[in-house]
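Hi there,

I know you've been waiting on this one. I reran it after we fixed the sequence typo, so this is the corrected version. Both the input and the resulting structure follow.
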Amino acid sequence: MRNRIVNHLNLSKKCSGGLALQNLSKRNLGGFTIVELIIIITVMGILIILGTINMTDAQINARDAERKGDIESIAMNLETFYTSGTDDSTDIGYYPSQERLTYNASQYLPDLNPEALQAPGSNDSKLFKTSAPTTAQYGYQCTSYDVNNTKCRNFTLYYHTEKPQTGCTDNICIVTSKNQ
């Protein structure tokens, strides 16, 4: 058997293409060529870039969904305040004033999770008196008052999204009081 292998090797050396085949088989045993490595690195780079773009987009969508959920929770608690007030309040049929709510929301909305007041990326757990909040703020404004101009009859909540949303203007979305 050994003689047969040696004869085959000698025969491949004598053939014109045998030497090329022998060199080719040695080269393939050594590893990847530079061209193969460049192609692999390029493909991996493209996949990493696409993954990063998709991850960033998913994070933006998650933050916008959190903002919307927070505002809906705040609005629901404001409606509860409107219908039942607080334990020590006789303000049924009114919403908390801007001053009360922007400085001490937990007193007037005791069932609200304090984290709902904190927009993604913010350290502030409060509502701001603004109709043009940043992505790190939630805005609250009384839009009409009683005849004495002291009690809030209607409100508007504002939040700013990172991506354009249906029904929002310049990425500013609003939620209004149900009792208009």
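Quick highlight: Residues 31 and 37 are 10 Å apart (CA to CA).

Best,
R. S.
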